[in-house]
Amino acid sequence: MSLKYAVLAALLEGEASGYELSKVFDVSLANFWASTPQQLYRELERLAQDGLIEARVVRQERRPDKRMFTLTEAGRRDLDAFAATPPRRPTAIRDELLIKIQAMDGVDPDATRALVEERGAWSRGKLARYRRVRERLLAGRTEAEYLRETDRVGPYLTLMGGIGFEEENLRWCERVLTVLRQRAPLG
């Protein structure tokens, strides 16, 4: 999948500047699709050239003008067609840490532990951010109330996927650390 559809999906929430979209990627989409600001701005240009989004310039005093982007009808049709099409292939894990764990035998166990602990800390941080987003979305409602009342359920469901992913990362990190502690006397 290209960044194209992640950007189009982000614009379902309404008009946004490139800066605002980069924040959406950091908070709402980071649990399933990562992008750098540079990639995002290049993609916005392509999408505008292809007629899938429109850009308008907003003049600002004491600040550079900003461009605001909206989804066009053609963009919505393209996104709808994409959403209705089965994925080309299942998700595959590509994780540098897993390669390092695969090759860890013969490496200082403390170095391996440090890598796993760092991953756990990263996952705890992301999980805390995702849970704050969840609380903001729920705004005091129960999950059932939110799901019944909201216009768009997709962002909540993808957020729940991100939460589950980070919870599983933490379980895996704890399991690896337990195995490494149990093996310590063997080394």
From TrEMBL:
The lineage of its organism: Bacteria, Bacillati, Actinomycetota, Actinomycetes, Kitasatosporales. SUPFAM superfamilies: Winged helix' DNA-binding domain. Residues 93-181 form the Transcription regulator PadR C-terminal domain. Residues 7-80 form the Transcription regulator PadR N-terminal domain. It comes from the Bacteria. It comes from Streptomyces indiaensis. This is PadR family transcriptional regulator. InterPro entries: Tscrpt_reg_PadR_C, Tscrpt_reg_PadR_N, WH-like_DNA-bd_sf, WH_DNA-bd_sf. Gene3D superfamilies: 6.10.140.190, Winged helix-like DNA-binding domain superfamily/Winged helix DNA-binding domain.
